[in-house]
Every structure is written in C-alpha cells, then in structure tokens.
Specification:
The chain is α/β, with parallel strands linked by helices. Helices cover 40% and strands 22% of the residues. The structure holds arginine (ARG). The site of arginine has 12 residues, from helix 9 and strand 14.
Length: 286
C-alpha cells in the first residue's frame, strides 16, 4: 500500500466533506453479499466502511444474504435440493436450514464483527417485530419463497435513532400462515430502501458494475439514467445476473430512492470510494 503523508490524509478528509454533509442524516441501505462476505480481509473492510458511515451520521442499514453457507450446510446434512427451471425449490426442511444459517450464523457473525470493531449493531430478520411481511411468489411455485408486502419501518427508525446499525437477514414472515419465507436479499434491500425513503440503495456485487461490453472492464458505465435501462436491456447490454439487479434499482428509484449504486465488493473499501469520492467505483443509477 502506498504511504501517504499527513497533509494528504487531511486532503482525503476534506475531499469527503461535501459528501459527508450531503449524506448526514440520510438513509443508505447496503446490500452486503458476494465475495465481500467470504474473504476475511474484504469482510473487515466492509465492516469498517459501515461503521465509518454511521459515525459520520449516515443512517446506515445493512441487508444480507447467506452466501455459500446455506449450500454448504444443506450439503453437510445430506439434503438433496430440488430445482425447478434452475431455481431451488424451498421445502420446509430447506427453509429451516435457511433460517438457521441466515438469521443465526451469518447475521450474528456480521453483528459481532461490527461490535468488535467498536460499532453498534442490532441483528434482526424479517420475523422480528414483524419487520418484513411477505406472501409466496405466485408465478412460479418455488415453495417457501416470498416477496415482501410490507416493511415495519418504525423498528428500523428506533434502532437508527439510537445510533445502531440494523443488520437484516432476508427472511420474512407470511402473515396468514406464520411460515417463514426466504426472500432474495437484493429485492429485500430495494423494498426496505423504498419504505424508508432512502437516499441511496447500494448493491455490492462481484462485478465492476454495469459494463457496455461484458468482456471489457474498461467499459464501465459510471452514471446510468434510469430511462436508459429499457434500451440497454433491448440491446442486450444488460443481461443475465444484471437484469434482476437493475430491476431492483429501478423499483427503488421509482419508489423515490434518489440514487442506486451497483458496486464491486471485490475492491477493498468500495463503499467509501463510491460514497465519498466524485468518481466512485461502480455504476450510479439515477
Ligand atoms: N460520491 C458520490 C455519490 O455517492 C458520487 C458517486 C459517483 N459514482 C459513480 N459511479 N459515478 O453520490
């Protein structure tokens, strides 16, 4: 790492000042996932980033998925997965494991890391306080997989008002049955950002952002007006895994979130660079 002198350190802080002022008391929802969740060094960097955000007055909310941990526990208990059109069917037994891993292991691990680095965090899932109410996805029968119908934002506001970072595992409750439903973490983050009237939704991924040419990492689209999304889809520029991510971003923006960002979680401190520099690291959709 390049050493910088103390004046340069001061310059870095001064450069961040307008953004700190701009984002103070604003809500930023971060979907944490991918490589940044597996690699220990990246994990530590993300934790530092969200603590710093919260320290400078950003109302920071973290939403996470399960990473590869769900798959590995399913395998170690010998649970056979059934796939429908490439998507996992979540039966009751699978849902129990999803809940154990997401709300137990992964969620508490993130909270513990934040607390150990001097931050304050509270780990919850959508069941706690009725935070996330959902219904089963109707088009395809994937079992206990849901889409969010309502977000109890009062709980999140209460935590944030006490300077805590809510760390949310994307499991929701089905009102009618009381069943737990598995929710895609990107869509959960988008719904939560929309309900909170957030300033930003930030999706951490394992790609640079939206690229003009997927084979050319220099072709990153840094700023993407949301009106251009349909034509980029039609032209095939946005395809595969990027499609649902951009749908989440569009949803959030249409619901009043000011900006959505898709950033590369493989880069250390991607969150801080995106938020507190002019250029950022990823794709900013507005
Ligand atoms: N830091 C500024 C913000 O968060 C600008 C980020 C620009 N990022 C980009 N990918 N063009 O609003």
């Amino acid at each position: 790492m390049k050493e910088i002198n103390n004046n340069e350190r001061a310059d870095v802080l001064v450069h961040a000042l307008p953004y700190i002022q701009q984002f103070q008391r604003k809500t930023i929802v971060v979907k944490y996932g991918g490589n940044a969740m597996i690699n220990e060094e990246l994990k530590a960097a993300v934790i530092q980033d969200v603590i710093l955000m919260s320290c400078v007055g950003v109302r920071t909310v973290m939403v996470h998925g399960g990473g590869p941990e769900i798959e590995s526990l399913l395998r170690s208990v010998g649970k056979e997965s059934r796939f429908i059109d490439g998507l996992r069917y979540t039966d009751e037994e699978t849902m129990e494991i999803v809940q154990m891993v997401l709300c137990g292991k992964v969620n508490k691990n993130i909270v513990s890391l934040i607390e150990r680095q001097g931050g304050k965090a509270m780990g919850i899932c959508g069941i706690d306080g009725g935070l996330l109410k959902a219904k089963r996805i109707s088009e395809t029968d994937l079992g206990l997989v849901g889409e969010i119908e309502s977000v109890n934002t009062a709980i999140l506001d209460a935590l944030i008002d006490r300077d805590m970072i809510p760390v949310i595992a994307s499991v929701a409750v089905e009102e009618a049955s009381g069943c737990s439903l598995n929710i895609n973490a990107d869509t959960a983050a988008a719904r939560i950002a929309a309900s909170l009237g957030a300033e930003k939704l930030i999706l951490m991924t394992d790609v640079h952002g939206v690229l003009h040419d997927v084979y050319d990492s220099d072709s990153l689209i840094r700023v993407l007006p949301k009106e251009q999304i349909p034509s980029l889809k039609a032209a095939g520029v946005i395809s595969k895994g990027m499609l649902p991510k951009l749908d989440c971003c569009s949803f959030a923006l249409n619901a009043g979130v000011r900006r959505a960002h898709i950033i590369d979680g493989r880069l250390p401190h991607a969150l801080l660079v995106e938020l507190f520099t002019d250029e950022g690291v990823g794709t900013m959709i507005e």
